[in-house]
Amino acid sequence: MKTKKTFTKIGTTFLWSLLTIITLFPIYWMILVSTRTPVELFGKPDLSPTFFEKVHWKNFTKPFIDGIYSDYLFNSIIVATSNAALVTVLALMATYALSRFKLPGSESIFFWTMTNRMAPPAAFLLPLFLLFSTVFKFGDFTLFDTKIGLILLYCVFNLPFAIWLLKGIIDGIPRELDEAMIVDGANLFTIFRKLIIPLAAPGIAVTSLLSFLFAWNEYLLASTLTSVYARTIPTGLSEFVTTTGTNWGTMAAVALVSMLPALLFLFAVQKHIVAGLTFGAVKG
Amino acid sequence: MLSKNKTGWLLLSPTIIILVLAGLVPFFYVLYVGFFQWNPLAVDPSLQFDGFASNYRRLIFDEIFLESIWRSIKFSVVTLSIELTLGFLLALSLLSSFPLKSFFRSVHTLPLVIAPIVVGSIFKLFTVQGLGPLPHILKDYFGYTLNYGLNAEQAFWMIVIMDVWHWTPFVTLTLLAGLSALPQDPYESAKIDGANNFQIFTYITIPMMVPVLIVVIFIRLMDSLKIVDEVWMLTGGGPGYATRFTGIHIWKEVFEKRYYGLGSAMSILYLYITIVICWVLYSVMVARGKNED
After folding, report:
1. Distances (CA, A) of A77 to A233, B140, B201
2. Which residues in chain A touch residue B226, judged by CB atoms under 8 angstroms apart?
3. Of the candidates A33, A241, A121, A235, the residue with the CA atom closest to the CA atom of residue B235
4. Nearest C-alpha of chain B: how many angstroms from A258?
5. Using the beta-carbon criterion (under 8 Å), do B33 and A15 form an inter-chain contact?
6. What is the pLDDT along chain B (293 residues), one digit of tens a residue?
7. Interface probe, candidates B125, B140, B167, chain A, greatest A C-beta count within 10 A
8. CB A225, CB A150: distance < 8 Å
9. Which of A55, B137, B158, B205 registers the highest number of CB atoms within 10 A of its CB?
10. How deeply is B264 buried, as exposed, middle or buried, from its count of CB atoms within 10 A (0-12, 13-18, 19+)?
């Protein structure tokens, strides 16, 4: 019996080692490509690691210091951060309203927000493009190719998820606490500041991180709704595809940089991110 | 002082305004445009009416569009079955303890947070002819030529492999969370009754996991039906039409050919099919809930 158990253990470990290699190998190769000159990439792939002195830094400096990619990076940071902040504030307000007030039809409102998350973005490309460039107009100002446009648009995808995540947490805070504070003469703002935000802090953190991640990673809408001034890093990445004779080293460098925030989050708060990504699914 | 409900609506209003303006308005707009011919690059760039639902009548006979829908559904079913099988096995294996488990699980989480467009880039670098190690390895050790730029079959399966690489971790971790939350009593009584592992799995684990499984299927199906980014990066929808899924097809018709009217009709049909699939799964979920009561 005991040997059988040891065997299963060895087998499982072996299987997971194999899986880990399959997961890491493509990423490892991308990092290698980002450190090499075009000449070094020619011919048979060389899988040995590049020494630090030999790293071809031009792959990084060319797009990010000499090129336009520093602007893309800046746009991505602004869009993702503002979107995360906006989504968190709006979702907190909305979830509190859905959870504490007996609003007629609040169940259907909750369900309706969810359907926005499920819709395929490709189906909304055309109307959004036309609305952004011609209909939503204030004088000469249109939402097309602006960071504000993207920030507002990503709310459509992030708000439902955020409300879903926060609903369980805010429902879990006893109503009696709110009522006690109201009796003591507290207004809504104080209730949020002293009660809801401190108690829901972990949930709020996860919500804003995941919103940030979605906005940072989104490609299809950003590439359609921007042209010059509000392009984000993912749209910049796709620009490598169309050119003939792609500079693979630069492409790998840009891909690596655009992956960094996600990796940082993952290492910092892995447990919470995974919980956040799977939480709603398991609850249902 | 505002009345209680007014405060509630006030708190909810920004969310509703944004969702109406950027979710509901586009929907009705696309519904409206779908009934017209509209090509801004044509001689007459205005909306033109040529018979009731002419775009929809055209789409019923548009083989490329219908094939793209069929392709999307086929792709979703294939990836879903692979990811569910693999994810379930991995989740089960994570219930036991073995060396380096938490390290393996951390690495497994990695693809989950990488942007689809970056996943596409990673796979492009890894598998493209003349650069990536994969075609070389396959050629040198197995005598197999991988060139999905020319081979339609390979292109489709390359996308499947990429999707499995990207999303199996989601299935694993969600199922793992579900498995860890199962009550232990049924297992103990089954063991007392002398059930073997296989019986325990088929008669206890699977039935108890059905709610979680349905949610995972739901989320993954919706996501793979709308796949665009990574396919666009890896194959651009080619070669030929081999990896032209519905999302990519609409994009090409709308933004390359500028068929605004036809593209809108496609969007509505695409949305309709997604909603129908959604609704069927939802009914299954509700029906199960009623059975259990």
Report:
1. 9, 44, 47
2. 120-122
3. A241
4. 8
5. no
6. 446 688 888 888 999 898 888 888 888 888 888 888 887 777 777 777 777 778 888 888 888 999 999 999 999 999 999 999 999 999 999 988 888 888 898 889 889 889 999 999 999 999 988 888 998 889 889 888 888 888 899 999 999 999 999 999 999 988 988 888 888 888 888 888 888 888 888 888 888 888 888 888 888 888 899 899 999 988 888 788 889 999 999 988 888 888 888 888 998 888 888 888 878 887 887 777 666 55
7. B125
8. yes
9. B158
10. buried
Residues 6+ apart with CB under 8 A from A259: B114, B115, B118
What domains are defined for chain B? 31-110+167-292 (1.10.3720.10)
Q: How far is A20 from chain B (nearest CA, A)?
A: 6
Q: Which of A10, A269, A274 to substitute to test the interface with B, most B CBs within 10 Å? A: A274
Of B112, B133, B225, Cβ closest to residue A120 = B225
Q: Is the dihedral of CA A164, A170, A172, A175 positive or negative?
A: negative
Q: Is residue B64 within 8 Å of residue B265, measured between CB atoms?
A: no
CA distance A198 to A171: 15
Pair A165, A276: CB distance under 8 Å: yes
Contact between A277 and B170 using a beta-carbon 8 Å cutoff: yes
B-chain residues within 8 Å CB-CB of A221? Answer: none
Residues A65-83 as b or e (16 or more Cβ within 10 Å = b): eeeebebbbebbebbbbbb
Token readout for B181 is: 């939350």
> Does B87 contact chain A (CB < 8 Å)?
no
**How remote is the C-alpha of A167 from its chain's centroid?**
20
Strand partners, A137: A142
CA-CA-CA-CA torsion sign (B47, B49, B54, B56):
positive
Give me the amino acid identity at A180: A
Residue carrying the six token digits 């493009």: A129
User: Cβ A120–B226 below 8 Å, yes or no?
Assistant: yes
Helix H, strand E, coil C: the string for A23-66 is HHHHHHHHHHHHCCCHHHHCCCCCCCCCCHHHCCCHHHHHHHHH
How is residue B245 annotated by DSSP?
-
A227 lies within 8 A of chain B by CB:
no
Residue B263 distance to chain A (closest CA, Å): 8
